[in-house]
Amino acid sequence: MNIVVTVKQTFDTEAKIVLDGKGNIDGSGVNLVINPYDEFAIEEALKLKEKFGGEITIVSVGGEAATKAIRTALAMGCDKAVRVDDPALADADEWAVAEILGKVVSKLPYDLILSGRIAVDDGSSQVAVRLADALGVPSVSSILKLDIEGTAATVTREIDGGTELIEVKLPALFTAQKGLNEPRLPSMKGIMGAKKKEIAVQSLADAGADPGAVAAKMIVPKLSLPNPRLAGKLIPGEAPDAARELAKLLREEAKVI
Amino acid sequence: MAKGIWIIAEQSKSEIRKVSLELLSRARQIADATGEPLVAVIPGYGVADLAGKAAPYGADKVILIDDERLAKYTTGAYTSALGKLIKKEEPRAVLMGNTAVGKDLAPRLAQRLGVGMASDCTGMETDAANFLSFRRPIYGGKAFAEVAAKSVPALATIRPNTFTLAEPDPSRKPEIVKAPADIDAADLRAVVKEVALAVSARPELIEADIIISGGRGMKGPENYKILEECADVIGAAVGASRAAVDAGWIDQKFQVGQTGKTVSPTLYIACGISGAIQHLAGMGSSKVIVAVNKDPEANIFAVADYGIVGDLFEVVPLLTEEFKKLAS
Asked: How does pLDDT run across A77-129, given as a tens digit for each residue?
């Protein structure tokens, strides 16, 4: 079974966000990690490889910095990687990234594509689902369980207020929700081995994508920071008095009860 | 020339979901300001009755796509049917709730239509430069992006509880039309075998007006009943911090934060939650925040509108009693 896993390098969720003089996110000094949801996708791919054999290819769109995330995935046990890097990608949006990934993945052998359900940086939750459409394969988002028999997959998907069980024919794409598995940590041997694994770096032309055809559909976003919330009232007194006062304030002042 | 604002209405238990009505309410204001017609599109099976439920919230027209193959949501069938209708009718904007369905459907539809999309928006405006522009949280709410599409239709999902529900106007009589579901066979490769909905009288976390959440200070799974009792008095949903989920005290579907659900209730009551940056990211857009925590130095007090420094096991049951008095 050949599996493709999409990976994105993101800020550590501990990171405090600051803007630079030009109003862009200032990444200096921020610890970069593999998108946490991508780790669930990688772990699931590794479990399937252990069961069925085959090869796992990581695909990523990103600059040199993304290499760290890709090396982590290779250290966990994935086999090889393709990273698309091109100056023309500076303003790429979700549409563009999905189109480019589509070009790359369509040239790889795959039975299954696994992705994180969301990236914790832009939080847009679009690229994986878009990639499935670019490839013309079915997709199921936010899965909690995956079973494969022959060319059919049975997945449990999280929905609002419950779950649903879905049967889908492979090849297909699934996005991983927290709860799908417990991602392993790379072993020392894995980390050493990862250094020898291939990361093919492709330009847009190498990937077979025409820069004009993948021009962004969204305007470049204007960023701002939220107004800091100000600390409100600490309600003094013994618990019974404080509880009574709080209920009163919620009713009469905040008008939310 | 593309025309009209479309709301893709979602249904739950034979009702239109609240988030869809919130979208109609806000889109009505924009429709009035721009002169664009407002259309509610209701895909599903046996949905004719729902047209009347969308009408009082401002739709000028309701399009029903009533087809057995749309009885249960699947990505493919819904993308196929809606994608073809959008290509044919050319609306100027297509909006849906940022729900389990919206999050899955909108990006697939966007790719199929070859357009951009704004996800999980918490604001929507119209101005001379852009027909619609959207405000959306990034980095889990630690920053905001103002975005707009160059492509048409403008496609976006909007976070539940972002817009205020309009006062329903029963005198509104929209035109109701039926559209056929044109679904490609290639889009029918996934089959829903079973839907398991949790039996709970409490509201869905992402749509709840009030949430009461417990963190590490809950000390164990058995103590969540204190929060549940309070929740049931005020009609709240119960949430949790990552610390409580990772400790195995409560299912991850209740997790609020950067790696859980992002919520914006009217009132968020944080009990025994220290206020890690990832948690604040997930609930920072709540209108009113209450914190109950033993530790006066806890981060959560820096964002709380009201705080009680105290033992949640003492304070929460007392609060429940006070809420009961208010309710009676």
From this structure: 999 999 999 999 988 999 999 999 999 999 999 999 999 999 999 999 999 99
Residue of A173, A206, A216, A1 lying closest to A103 (CA atoms): A206
Instruction: Please report whether residue B200 resides in a domain.
Output: no
**Tokens 């749509």 label which residue?**
B207
* Residues in A touching B107 (Cβ below 8 Å): 94, 125-127, 129-130
Residue B221 lies in a domain: yes
Q: What is the ipTM of this complex?
A: 0.95
**Per-residue tokens: A212:** 């004009």
Interface A-B: count of C-beta contacts within 8 A? 269
Strand partners, A201: A83
**Interface probe, candidates B138, B193, B264, chain A, greatest A C-beta count within 10 A:** B138
Question: pTM, whole model, 2 decimals?
Answer: 0.95
Are B235 and B168 found together in one domain?
Answer: no
- Kindly report the CATH number assigned to the domain that includes residue B311: 3.40.50.1220
Rounded-to-10 torsion of CA B280, B286, B290, B296: 20
**B322:A246 CB<8 A:** yes
**Searching chain B, which residue's CA lies closest to the CA of residue A15?**
B277
Residues B13 and B74 in one domain: yes
pLDDT tens sequence across B8-18: 999 998 999 99
Is A232 in contact with B253 (Cβ distance < 8 A)? Answer: no
Using CA atoms, how far apart are residues B165 and B27, in angstroms rounded to an integer?
11
Q: Do B118 and A168 touch (CB under 8 A)?
A: no
Residues of A in contact with B287 (CB under 8 A): 256
pLDDT digits (tens, 9 = 90+) for A159-173: 999 999 999 999 999
* Residue in B79, B82, B111 to test binding to A, most A beta-carbons within 10 Å: B111
Q: Give the fold, CATH level 3, of A3-207.
A: Rossmann fold (3.40.50)
Q: In what order do the strands lie in the sheet with A112-116?
A: A199-202, A80-84, A56-61, A3-6, A112-116, A172-176, A139-149, A152-159, A162-169, B190-197
Contact present, A67 and A7 (Cβ < 8 Å): no
Q: What residues does B40 pair with on adjacent strands?
A: B7, B62
Contact B139 A120 (CB under 8 A): yes
Q: Which residue of A has its CA nearest to B12?
A: A160
